[in-house]
C-alpha cells in the first residue's frame, strides 16, 4: 500500500527529514495560487502512487506563473501507468549539486532490513542495482537493535560521499529507518535526496523540523505500508487505501481478489490456486490473461454477476474463461449462479467458456445456458478461450458441439 508523495513527505518531515515547502493543488487555479504563495521557481509534480513520473512527463520545473499554469494544465488529468492524476504537488524548487538515493527495504535473502545509499540517485535506481550493484552501499540492520550511528555513517561513507556531508546523510538514513520501523513500512525511499551547494540557498525546508542550515533535502518521498500491518496503522492504511483503478475499486467492493493484467483472456475462478494455475496454463498455451479474479467460495448470482460484469466491462478482454472447481460449493449451484447472472446481463456480451469440475459437475453442465461454450478439461477450456480471444468476431458458442468430444483429465 503506497502513499502519495505529499503524504510520504508529511511523514518524513515529522520524522525530522528536511523536505521542501510545498502545497497540494487540485486545480490549475490552486496550482498558480500555491506557486505564488511559495515563491518561484517551483516543481509541479503529479501525485500518483507509481514511480517514474519524471520520465512520464509528470514532473516539471516552472520558473514563472505562466509556466506553472501550463504545467498544471498539462499534468492534471494525465494518466501515468494507468493512474489518473487528480492533484499536483507544488513545491519550492531545489537547486541541487548532487542527487543521492537513500532507501530502506527488506533484504529477502538475508531476512532482515537493509539501508541503502547511492550517489547515483535521480531516476532509475533499479538500473543502477542491475548494472552497477557496487554503486549502492548496503548496510544490513538487525531490527532488534535498530540502526547504529556507525552503520548509517558507514553506508554514507561507502557510497563515496564527501566527509563533510556524511553526518547529515547519516542522520537521514537513521531517521528514515526509525520511521520505517515505527510505521510498519515495507519500503521507504528518497530518490533523489538532494545535496545543495554549500554557499547557496538550498530551497525551502519544512517549518520546524528541518535544520535551517541543512544541505540535504528530500526532493521525492516514497513510503509503502506493509499490507499485513494495516490494522496497526489505520491512519496510514486509510491514506493508502484509494484503489489504483476503477476495476480494482469495484473488485474491492465485492471482496474479490483481483489484479488487472495486460492480456485479453478474462479469467474468473474460485480459489486462488486454481486461478493462478489458470493464468499459468493460458500463458503456456500461448495466450495472455487479462486479470486474476478469485471470487472465493459461494456462488450466489449477485456475486457471480458482479464478477462477470467486472470482467466483461474491461475493454481489453476479448473472451472470458470461467474455471470452477466444485468442492463444498456444488457445480450445479455455480451453474445456476452463472445463468442468473447472464439473465441480468442479457446473455454473454463476449465469448465465454465455462469449465466445471468436481462435485455435481455433470449436473452443472446440463443446466448451463446454451450461449456458453462448455469444456470439460482444463486444457480444452483454456485453448477454447485463447482461440475465442484471438478470433472474437467468429466464435463458436454452441456448448453441445464440443461437450462430449473433449476428454476428461
Ligand atoms: P519520480 O520520477 O516519480 O521518481 O519523481 P521525482 O520526484 O523523483 O522527480 C523526478 C526528477 O525530477 C528527480 O529525479 C529530479 O531530478 C527532478 N526534480 C524533482 N523535483 C525537483 C526540484 O525541485 N528541483 C530540481 N532541480 N529537480 C527536481
Ligand atoms: Mn523519484
Describe it.
The structure is a single chain. With 409 residues, the chain is α+β, with helices and mostly antiparallel strands. Helix content is 37%, strand content 23%. The chain contains 14 helices and 18 strands. It has helices spanning 5-14, 28-38, 65-75, 125-131, 149-158, 163-182, 234-240, 246-254, 272-284, 301-313, 331-345, 361-367, 378-390, 399-402, and strands at residues 22-25, 42-46, 59-62, 79-80, 83-84, 88-92, 96-107, 112-118, 136-140, 185-196, 216-218, 222-225, 257-260, 265-269, 291-294, 319-326, 352-358, 373-375. Strands 7, 8, 9, 10, 11 and 12 form a 6-stranded antiparallel beta sheet that branches. α2 packs antiparallel against α3, α8 runs antiparallel to α10 (301-313) and α11 (331-345) runs parallel beside α12 (361-367). The protein is elongated and about 80 Å long. The model is unreliable at 202-210 and 394-409 (pLDDT under 50). It binds guanosine-5'-diphosphate and manganese (II) ion.
Amino acid at each position: 500500500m503506497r502513499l502519495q508523495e505529499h503524504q510520504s513527505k508529511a511523514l518524513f518531515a515529522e520524522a525530522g527529514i528536511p523536505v521542501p515547502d510545498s502545497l497540494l493543488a487540485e486545480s490549475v487555479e490552486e496550482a498558480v495560487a500555491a506557486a505564488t504563495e511559495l515563491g518561484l521557481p517551483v516543481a509541479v509534480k503529479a501525485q500518483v502512487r507509481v514511480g517514474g513520473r519524471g520520465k512520464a512527463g509528470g514532473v516539471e520545473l516552472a520558473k514563472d506563473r505562466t509556466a506553472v499554469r501550463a504545467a498544471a494544465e498539462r499534468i492534471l488529468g494525465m494518466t501515468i501507468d494507468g493512474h489518473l492524476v487528480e492533484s499536483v504537488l507544488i513545491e519550492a524548487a531545489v537547486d541541487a549539486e548532487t542527487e543521492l538515493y537513500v532507501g530502506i527495504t527488506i533484504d529477502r535473502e538475508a531476512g532482515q532490513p537493509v539501508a541503502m545509499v547511492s550517489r547515483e540517485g535521480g531516476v532509475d535506481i533499479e538500473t543502477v542495482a542491475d548494472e552497477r550493484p557496487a554503486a549502492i552501499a548496503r548496510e544490513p540492520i538487525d531490527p532488534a537493535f535498530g540502526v547504529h550511528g556507525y552503520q548509517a555513517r558507514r553506508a554514507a561513507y561507502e557510497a563515496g560521499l564527501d566527509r563533510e556531508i556524511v553526518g547529515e546523510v547519516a542522520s537521514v538514513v537513521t531517521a528514515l529507518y526509525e520511521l520505517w520501523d515505527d510505521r510498519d513500512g515495507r519500503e521507504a525511499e528518497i530518490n533523489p535526496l538532494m545535496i545543495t551547494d554549500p554557499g547557496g540557498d538550498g530551497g525551502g525546508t519544512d517549518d520546524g523540523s528541518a535544520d535551517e542550515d541543512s544541505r540535504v533535502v528530500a526532493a521525492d518521498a516514497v513510503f509503502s505500508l506493509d499490507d499485513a500491518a494495516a490494522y496497526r496503522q489505520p491512519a496510514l492504511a486509510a491514506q493508502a487505501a484509494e484503489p489504483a483503478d476503477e476495476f480494482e475499486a469495484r473488485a474491492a467492493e465485492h471482496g474479490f481478489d483481483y489484479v488487472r493484467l495486460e492480456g485479453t483472456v478474462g479469467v474468473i475462478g474460485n480459489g486462488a490456486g486454481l486461478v493462478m494455475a489458470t493464468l499459468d496454463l493460458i500463458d503456456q498455451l500461448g495466450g495472455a490473461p487479462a486479470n486474476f479474479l478469485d471470487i472465493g467460495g459461494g456462488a450466489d448470482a449477485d456475486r457471480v454477476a458482479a464478477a462477470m460484469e467486472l470482467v466483461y466491462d474491461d475493454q481489453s478482454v476479448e473472451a472470458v474463461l470461467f474455471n470452477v472447481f466444485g468442492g463444498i460449493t456444488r457445480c450445479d449451484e455455480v451453474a445456476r449462479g452463472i445463468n442468473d447472472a447472464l439473465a441480468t446481463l442479457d446473455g454473454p456480451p463476449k465469448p465465454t467458456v465455462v469449465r466445471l469440475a468436481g462435485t455435481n459437475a455433470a449436473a452443472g453442465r446440463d443446466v448451463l445456458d446454451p450461449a456458453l461454450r462448455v469444456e470439460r478439461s482444463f486444457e480444452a477450456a483454456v485453448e477454447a478461450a485463447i482461440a475465442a480471444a484471438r478470433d472474437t468476431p467468429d466464435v463458436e458458442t454452441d456448448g453441445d458441439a464440443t461437450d462430449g468430444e473433449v476428454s476428461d483429465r
